[in-house]
């Protein structure tokens, strides 16, 4: 029987951080399932799912904790046996672009939460607008719309927010 963990890792960016985590997982006979990692503001941050034989789970926890000596903090969350119950939803992609200003993510996420939409993935960035040089904010998200809600309901809610924020929003069904 295997134990699954979701790990959150963060440390000052330097070569070998991914290898250090992968080494400890492999040393305990574990398997690296899924991950998302990025460099942000000089830090390396990631989230990943690993599984390890149940009898080796305590040793993996200790080994990951020891990585703090290398400047890598690892938070370990055990996945409940049987996993998390599945949600019933329609998967949609959201793209947003507009001039940067405080509160964009707060306002959009509040609008999504108000109609029970789950943000499964979110990627944002600020760049210079080509002509004006002003800060341009863009976001891409993968949304899980409950089957009890309609895509039109989501569009209506986001169009009102987009008008207030003066941003462009596009929503489409995610490719299967």
H and E order: EHEEHEEHEEHE
Overall helicity: 25-40%
- The CATH architecture term of the largest domain is 2-Layer Sandwich
Strand arrangement in the largest pleated sheet: 2-3-1-4
Number of strands: 8
Structural class: alpha+beta
CATH topology of the largest domain: Alpha-Beta Plaits
The mean pLDDT is: 94
Rg for CA atoms: 20 Å
Helix count from the secondary structure assignment: 4
Name the beta content range.
over 45%
Counting structural domains, the number is 2
What is the end-to-end distance? 31 Å
Low-confidence sequence ranges: none
3D architecture notes:
The protein is an alpha+beta fold and 176 residues long. The chain folds into 2 domains: 2-78, ACT domain (Alpha-Beta Plaits, 2-Layer Sandwich); 89-173, 2-Layer Sandwich (Alpha-Beta Plaits), CATH 3.30.70.260. The protein is 27% helix and 45% strand. It is built from 4 helices and 8 strands, in the order E-H-E-E-H-E-E-H-E-E-H-E. The chain has helices spanning 17-27, 57-66, 104-114, 151-165; strands spanning 2-12, 31-40, 43-53, 72-78, 89-99, 118-128, 135-146, 167-173. The chain has a 4-stranded antiparallel beta sheet, with helices on one face. Strands 6-7-5-8 form a 4-stranded antiparallel beta sheet, covered by helices on one side. A hairpin with a 6-residue loop joins strand 6 and strand 7. Helix 3 runs antiparallel to helix 4 (151-165). The longest helix has 15 residues, at 151-165. The radius of gyration is 20 Å and the shape is flat.
């Amino acid at each position: 029987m295997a134990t699954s963990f979701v790990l959150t890792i963060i440390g000052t960016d330097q070569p070998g951080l991914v290898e250090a985590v992968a080494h400890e997982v492999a040393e305990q006979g574990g398997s690296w399932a899924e991950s998302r990692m990025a460099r942000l503001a000089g830090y390396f941050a990631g989230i990943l799912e690993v599984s390890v034989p149940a009898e080796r789970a305590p040793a993996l926890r200790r080994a990951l904790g020891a990585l703090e000596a290398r400047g890598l903090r690892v938070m370990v969350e055990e996945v409940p046996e049987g996993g998390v119950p599945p949600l019933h939803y329609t998967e949609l992609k959201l793209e947003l672009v507009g001039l940067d200003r405080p509160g964009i993510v707060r306002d959009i996420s509040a609008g999504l939460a108000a109609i029970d939409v789950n943000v499964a993935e979110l990627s944002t960035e600020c760049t210079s607008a080509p002509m004006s040089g002003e800060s341009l904010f863009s976001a891409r998200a993968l949304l899980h719309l409950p089957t009890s809600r309609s895509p039109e309901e989501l569009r209506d809610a986001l169009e009102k927010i987009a008008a207030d924020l003066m941003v462009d929003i596009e929503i489409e069904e995610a490719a299967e």
